[in-house]
Write a structure and sequence with these properties.
The protein is of the alpha/beta class. It has 2 domains: 6-69, Helicase, Ruva Protein, domain 3 (Orthogonal Bundle); 87-279, Rossmann fold, CATH 3.40.50. Helix content is 40%, strand content 19%. It contains 13 helices and 9 strands. It has a 7-stranded mixed sheet, sandwiched between helices. A hairpin with a 5-residue loop joins strand 8 and strand 9 (273-279). The protein starts with 5 loop residues before the first helix and ends with a strand.
Length: 282
Amino acid sequence: MTLPTVNMWVDYASDHLSSVTTTPHLDAEIILRNVCGIDQITVLTGAPIILNSEQLKKLEKLLNRRHAGEPIAYIIGEKEFWSLPLKVTKDTLIPRPETELLVEFVIDKLKTDDLLQILDLGTGSGAIAIALATEFPKAQITATDISLKALEVAKKNAKKYNTHNVTFKSGDWLNAVPNRFYSIIVCNPPYVGINDPDLDVGQTKFEPDLALFSTNNGMSALQKIIAEAPKSLQSNGWLVLEHGHRQQESVKKLLYDAQFKSIVHHYDLSGRPRVTAAQTTN
């Protein structure tokens, strides 16, 4: 049997994936680079590298997982967020680009990190907390999650980037940090309703339900967090929340009812509202 070159395999895999993904060539290339340790330049230049039989076995296994719809991030165990490659597992949500809006807002509002106390609720892989820790090295950041397995992943990511200013706590939302007060609370909670018309079933069927779904049309977690947050925020502290693009008005009303002020919305690259922030009035 003639063994294929790197580019021959990428062409084969890309054709195999064309019916299940909009980025078949990129997906094939990522799988190849992950298995064979080949950099992108080597692939692009068409270097005539011959794959061996052991590599082909590994490649075929991962290719079949991708063909079955499993996200690339879970297949290679990594997803970049805020230019930081982070470990992800099926116990953590895959970080989305729109979640970087949370980080951008905090950077814009907090000009200094002196004496800052930041809380990241439902940290998952630790993406938001670690991104903020790299931007605010003097801040004290607490990251919580109800999933102990997710916290283990987050701790590994924090160790990778030497973010010693992040402390991890387990628990259900603000119950994890009783009698603590923060300058800012950030959260990407589960906000997807079971029958959400925008649900990406292809990817989300592999992700943990706990990190995705919330009852009451996806609003239950948001309702609880908004109601309880004022008791854990310092004077003029900020609450910054990611939510579904159809939930903007509902979130705004909840914030008004909880006596928040300075409510602002932020939009993703498609122009859809994804993040809402507000200040306490005390």
